[in-house]
Amino acid sequence: MTTTPTSALSQAAADSNAALTTAAAAAARVLPAVSPLTPGAPQPGTIGSAAGFAGAAIASFEGIVPGAIAVLVGADLVQALESSPLGALDLAAAAQPALDAAAAAFGAKVAAARTVPIELAINDLGYPFTMVPLVGDSGSAALLVNDASLATTVHTAPAPAPEPTFTAAPLHQPPSPVAARGMEMLHGVIMDVTVELGRARMSVRELLALSPGTVLELDRAAGSPADLLVNGRLIARGEVVVIDEDFGLRVTEIVDDAAAS
């Protein structure tokens, strides 16, 4: 059976749409949202594709795949990140798992995401591109893929993106309904947590004189609790413990907002 050019083009378009829908579904599963997001029909991107959205995160493909991929989000997520009880959070960090999941569905990987102003998102992504709306009962988002990237990855068998599970820590104070909605959106956001044993002040001369074997005296007595910092903000204190051959922290105190400031 001979395939005509028209049917070949139709099959290529169907393959592209199927790959886009798979990638969008993978991104939707891990993108912070109040209600589950469902991919809509892929559509050609235009200069007005970013209208109605409030934030954008873009990541470039790695390796031989050209172009980039982006996620557009609404004002509800942007506001929730800005007003987080843990301090302002970065949209790029919140969207990174969604971009990673979408790229994995194409059989590819992306570099670290970056936050861009919504009015510059289309130019940064580059034309032509395809957009897949992500629609939920409360709010919406969108996945944008550069067509050059899509053409390179569409024939790669998509690898199913794992569905991560997140357990949200209970809040020690009952939040207001508005705060609860914002916090609900952020439950799946991955954040860097730092444990600090103590600090020291040193002159440039002393720093340049450091060598293997140098002992630094910290501003904390032996046996004092270590600080647990999230996004540079003190949220708890605890005891340093050893778990197998790794260090860990046993939390002994949750620090309220007044004590942390």
Helix/strand-derived category reads alpha+beta
| SSE pattern, N- to C-terminal | HEEEEHHEHEEHHEHEEEH
**Span between N and C termini?**
73 Å
Secondary structure tally: strands? 11
Q: CATH superfamily membership of the largest domain, which one?
A: CheC-like
Percent in helix? 25-40%
Rg on CA atoms, Å = 23 Å
Summarize the structure.
With 261 residues, the protein is an alpha+beta fold.
Can you characterise this structure?
The structure is a single chain. The protein has 261 residues and is of the alpha+beta class. It has 2 domains: 168 residues, CheC-like (Chemotaxis protein chec, 3-Layer(aba) Sandwich), CATH 3.40.1550.10; 69 residues, SpoA-like (Surface presentation of antigens (SPOA), Roll). The protein has 8 helices and 11 strands. Strands 1, 2, 3, 4, 5, 6 and 7 form a 7-stranded antiparallel beta sheet that branches. Strands 8-9-10-11 form a 4-stranded antiparallel beta sheet, with no helix packed on it.
Topology:
Blueprint: H1 5-30, E1 38-39, E2 43-44, E3 55-60, E4 68-73, H2 75-82, H3 91-105, E5 114-116, H4 121-125, E6 129-135, E7 140-146, H5 147-153, H6 177-186, E8 193-196, H7 204-208, E9 226-230, E10 233-243, E11 246-254, H8 257-260
Antiparallel strand pairs: 1-6, 2-6, 3-4, 3-5, 4-7, 6-7, 8-9, 9-10, 10-11
Helix pairs in contact: 1-3, 2-6
